[in-house]
């Protein structure tokens, strides 16, 4: 299976740690590519609707090659830290630009990893999950998993062996 991971964090902290644990489990049987929005030149969606949700974006930047990778994937993993009770701007930028090929993103397998500085029963995780639920319903996604983790210090998640084993197991069982 071809898996595209969209890393919504610009830092090398807990979100990347979670991604790497997932990759450790998934890499044996799957082809994996990581998209790092903070390293791309992508303008925000203007809502011009020229793309008609299928033609690609009119912006002459990294949008179309990035969305091509996502559209070609069998599975998409969205990974994000929590920023102000929501997903990061880096991840939201990519999601917004997916509109230009939205019809080609139907019926994908999807997973989410969210890492925040509040306990996982905090509303911030629920808000992010609900946004992904709406996208999943609209695009007929097969939501394989939604995982949330609490970690504040940059290396805190890595020290949580149960979480690391869980993420590796999710990847391995795909």
From TrEMBL:
InterPro entries: Flavoprotein-like_sf, FMN_Rdtase-like_dom, ISF_SsuE-like
Domain NADPH-dependent FMN reductase-like, chain residue ranges per copy: 1-120
Molecular functions (GO terms): oxidoreductase activity
Gene3D superfamilies: 3.40.50.360
Keyword Flavoprotein in annotation: yes
Keywords, in A-Z order: Flavoprotein, FMN
Domain of life: Bacteria
Pfam families, alphabetized: FMN_red
PANTHER family: NAD(P)H-DEPENDENT FMN-CONTAINING OXIDOREDUCTASE YWQN-RELATED (PTHR43278)
Name of the featured protein: Flavodoxin family protein
């Amino acid at each position: 299976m071809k898996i595209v991971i969209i890393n919504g964090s610009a830092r090398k902290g807990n979100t990347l740690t979670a991604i790497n644990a997932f990759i450790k489990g998934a890499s044996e049987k799957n082809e994996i590519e990581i998209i790092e929005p903070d390293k791309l030149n992508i303008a925000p969606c203007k809502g011009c609707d020229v793309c008609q949700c299928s033609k690609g974006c009119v912006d002459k930047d990294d949008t179309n090659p990035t969305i091509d990778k996502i559209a070609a994937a069998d599975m998409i993993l969205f990974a994000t830290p929590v920023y102000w009770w929501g997903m990061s701007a880096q991840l939201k930028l990519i999601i917004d630009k997916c509109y230009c090929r939205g019809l080609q993103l139907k019926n994908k397998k999807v997973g989410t990893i969210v890492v925040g500085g509040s306990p996982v029963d905090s509303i911030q995780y629920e808000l992010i999950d609900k946004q992904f639920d709406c996208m999943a319903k609209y695009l007929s996604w097969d939501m394989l998993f939604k995982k949330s983790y609490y970690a504040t210090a940059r290396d805190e998640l890595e020290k949580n062996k149960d979480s690391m084993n869980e993420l590796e197991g999710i990847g391995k069982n795909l």
